[in-house]
């Protein structure tokens, strides 16, 4: 059994010098398949669900190539990696749709803390109770996926002290989200939040992980991992997704994997523990000292990820996608994007030079992958 997988990708547009420029109103008007965010400086595209990693690779690349061609026609514009307004602009909100009342609420409530770029990974699970259990486990382990994906060490031209400034500042909403013991408990909680106004609508649940579906909270069919920073390298993103899928397959197969029964902590204590782990991963990513949800033992994020990798490798191999999981070892060995950028920063590269190099490297990587792997599918 392999699972359906799909991505929601948010990316910034701007100049080759790293200045982020709001173009989403033009992009959405002229290109199919792109959606606006409340701020015009980033734009979103979504891949169709697929069980096949080769198809997903090309589904990640194809819209990006189309968008780059369009940006070339508009002017000297490009796509900018990273998950924050790395070189400036966090002092103002640039609305993409000034008439949208939900966007009014977002701007007035959160300001530019939400003007971030990220990737949401969706994985299909049709049984709502299995989905709820999967959400409980992955919520406990979401800090590990943040650690792998961190790509936002800069804001307004300065190193912030975070590897993921995005998640460090992001307003998780509502402020307290419990571990849902059942689908019914989730439905009741969402209805209560909507009635109380702590959620403006069913989409206004901004936690690290949430159950998703076509008629939330009633009809649910997928787990959505929302914690990851933008991962610009498709091979790295697919490796992170393969770890998630293999872990989910393990969870589906083994009903005993559940924080509500396997942990020495109460559900409330688990919510606090994972919030602390998320905060630690936002600061130090792969080097973060975390507490394991089973018994509270101290463990470095990199070591915890390596343990899960070893545990699920056989599952990935059996299901035929271990070759997409194996590049995870490179991330563990060489560091995530934020760590690589901070290494350059430490030897004297200013933030603009780091970002401009990353802009070039991102485009070169896309061309390399298209030529090697997707030329026939993208033709």
Overall geometric form:
globular
Instruction: Give the strand tally.
Output: 11
Strand content: 5-15%
Discrete helix count? 14
Name the average pLDDT. 95
Task: State the order of secondary-structure elements, H for helix, E for strand.
Answer: EHEEHEHEHEEHHEEHHHEEHHHHH
Describe the structure.
This protein has helices at residues 24-30, 53-74, 101-110, 128-149, 165-169, 183-196, 234-253, 259-262, 267-284, 301-319, 322-325, 328-334, 337-346, 351-378; strands at 5-14, 34-36, 42-46, 78-80, 119-124, 154-155, 158-159, 209-212, 222-225, 289-291, 298-300. The chain is an alpha+beta fold. The strands form three sheets. Strands 1, 2, 3, 4, 5, 8 and 9 form a seven-stranded antiparallel β-sheet that branches. Strands 6-7 form a two-stranded antiparallel ribbon. A hairpin with a 2-residue loop joins strand 6 (154-155) and strand 7 (158-159). Helix 2 crosses helix 14, helix 4 runs parallel beside helix 9 (267-284) and helix 4 (128-149) crosses helix 10 (301-319). The chain is globular. 44% of the residues are buried. The mean pLDDT is 95.
List keywords for this structure.
alpha+beta; seven-stranded antiparallel β-sheet; 14 helices; 379 residues; single chain
Concise synopsis of the structure shown:
The chain is an alpha+beta fold. Helices cover 50% and strands 12% of the residues. The protein has helices at residues 24-30, 53-74, 101-110, 128-149, 165-169, 183-196, 234-253, 259-262, 267-284, 301-319, 322-325, 328-334, 337-346, 351-378; strands at 5-14, 34-36, 42-46, 78-80, 119-124, 154-155, 158-159, 209-212, 222-225, 289-291, 298-300.
């Amino acid at each position: 059994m392999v699972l359906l997988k799909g991505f929601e990708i948010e990316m910034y547009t701007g100049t080759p010098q790293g200045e982020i420029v709001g173009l989403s109103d033009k992009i959405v008007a002229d290109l199919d398949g792109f959606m606006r965010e409340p701020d015009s400086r980033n734009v979103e595209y979504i891949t169709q669900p697929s069980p096949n990693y080769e198809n997903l690779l090309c589904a990640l690349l194809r819209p990006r190539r189309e968008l780059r061609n369009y940006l070339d026609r508009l002017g000297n514009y490009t796509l900018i990696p990273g998950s924050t307004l790395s070189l400036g602009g966090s002092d103002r909100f640039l609305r993409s749709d000034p008439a949208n009342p939900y966007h009014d609420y977002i701007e007035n409530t959160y300001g530019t803390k939400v003007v971030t770029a990220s990737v949401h990974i969706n994985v299909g699970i049709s049984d709502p109770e299995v989905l709820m259990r999967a959400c409980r486990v992955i919520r406990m382990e979401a800090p590990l996926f943040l650690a792998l994906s961190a790509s936002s060490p800069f804001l307004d031209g300065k190193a912030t002290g975070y590897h993921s400034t995005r998640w460090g500042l992001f307003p998780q909403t509502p402020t307290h989200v419990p571990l849902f013991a059942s689908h019914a408990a989730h439905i009741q909680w969402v209805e209560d939040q909507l009635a109380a106004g702590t959620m403006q609508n069913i989409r206004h649940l901004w936690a690290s992980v949430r159950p998703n579906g076509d008629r939330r909270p009633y009809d649910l069919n997928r787990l959505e991992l929302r914690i990851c920073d933008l991962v610009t390298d498709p091979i790295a993103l697919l490796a992170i997704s393969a770890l998630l899928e293999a872990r989910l397959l393990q969870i589906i197969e083994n009903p005993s994997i559940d924080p509500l029964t396997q942990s020495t902590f109460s559900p409330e204590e688990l919510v606090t523990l994972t919030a602390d782990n998320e905060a630690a991963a936002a600061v130090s990513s792969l080097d973060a000292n975390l507490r394991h949800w089973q018994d509270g033992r101290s463990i470095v994020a990199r070591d915890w990820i390596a343990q899960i990798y070893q545990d699920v490798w056989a599952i990935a191999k059996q299901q035929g996608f271990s070759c997409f999981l194996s590049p995870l070892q490179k991330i563990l060995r060489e560091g995530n994007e934020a760590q690589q950028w901070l290494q350059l920063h430490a030897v004297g590269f200013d933030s603009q030079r780091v970002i401009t190099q990353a802009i070039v490297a991102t485009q070169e990587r896309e061309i390399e992958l298209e030529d090697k792997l997707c030329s026939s599918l993208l033709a």
